[in-house]
Design a protein that fits this description.
single chain, about 80 residues, mainly alpha, two-stranded antiparallel ribbon, 4 helices, 2 strands
């Protein structure tokens, strides 16, 4: 299994969790907002950030259900 950078980071964070988690719990850690919350929906920084968030949602949808435990195969993919 070949992982892209975002898939690898999501899987790493899930592996470190002490209990089952939603992959989306980590999206703001991977790509934190880099704009003031008062900026409009069309602000370029918000648009780029939203695109990153959507990309992160695509990663786990293709690999696993939303609530997950890391499997041995997932751990092996990190090494």
């Amino acid at each position: 299994m070949t992982l892209n950078q975002d898939e690898r980071e999501i899987l790493r964070l899930i592996t470190e969790a002490s209990e089952p988690v939603a992959a989306s719990d980590f999206f703001h850690i991977i790509y934190p907002p880099n704009f003031d919350v008062s900026v409009g929906e069309e602000h370029p920084d918000r648009v780029v950030w939203q695109a990153h968030q959507f990309d992160l949602y695509r990663a786990p949808i293709e690999l696993w259900p939303d609530l997950v435990e890391v499997t041995d195969a997932g751990r092996a993919a990190l090494t």
